[in-house]
Amino acid sequence: MEYKSWRDFIESQAEESYFRRLMNFVDQERQVKDIYPPRKDMFSCFAACQLSDVKVVIIGQDPYHGPGQAHGMSFSVREGVKIPPSLVNIFKELQSDLGISPPKSGFLQKWAERGVLLMNTSWSVEKGKPGSHSRLGWMEFSERILKMLNDHKDPMVFILWGAHAQKVGCVVTNPKHLIIKSAHPSPFSADRGFFGSRPFSRANKFLEETGRGAINWDLN
């Protein structure tokens, strides 16, 4: 099925039993535990990057599990929040790749508005417990998103950082898309192939060659 907007897609999923179970469980958990991101922010990546505008998909894993960090866009934190280590490394690679100075803020809204879908594969997490919601069924939701994008009429770039993103990204099989794989930007793995992978320039080269137009990655 072809969807014209994220709203159409979400509404179609909301009618399915797996999605209702998920949302009911997370809502119940919120009553007794600290769950991130806030409910109103869970799907903010869709509001920030319209379906028709998607050029690049960056796939994260969990939302951040610390207070005040997660707001529904992978790797992003709002203005005034300390930039997490993985995002620090992303900005280091951006500078090495394109010569763009690291911004003072880790808020990636501008990327989203320019066509970068910043999606996690788990869409909720319990405070201080990474991976706590990863087996609830979010993977089905995420795979449905990626399968839909795989069938999209326009070529896209899928940036898969780390083994988890690469496993989920296996559903992207259409040869018209570009898949960029490397190690995760986490301090634990960035030296094993993330640094020097040049994902930003590689994405832009492909987007220019396919007539979609390069992303302005500068957040300053």
Secondary structure elements and pairings:
Blueprint: H1 6-14, H2 17-30, E1 35-36, H3 44-48, E2 56-60, H4 85-98, H5 109-113, E3 116-120, E4 125-126, H6 138-150, E5 157-161, H7 163-168, E6 178-182, H8 199-209
Parallel strand pairs: 2-3, 2-5, 5-6
Antiparallel strand pairs: 1-4
Name the descriptors.
alpha/beta, 35% helix
Tally of individual helices: 8
The largest sheet, given as strand count, sense and whether it forms a barrel, is: 4 strands, parallel
Helix/strand order: HHEHEHHEEHEHEH
Radius of gyration: 17 Å
Q: Report the β-strand fraction as a percent range.
A: 5-15%
Summarize the amount of helix as a percent range.
25-40%
Low-confidence segments: none
Give the CA-based shape.
Answer: globular
Outline the structure in words.
With 220 residues, this protein is α/β, with parallel strands linked by helices. The chain is built from 8 helices and 6 strands. It has helices at residues 6-14, 17-30, 44-48, 85-98, 109-113, 138-150, 163-168, 199-209, and strands spanning 35-36, 56-60, 116-120, 125-126, 157-161, 178-182. The strands form 2 sheets. A 4-stranded parallel sheet has the order 3-2-5-6. Strands 1-4 form a two-stranded antiparallel ribbon.
Summarize the structure.
With 220 residues, the protein is α/β, with parallel strands linked by helices. The chain has eight helices and six strands.
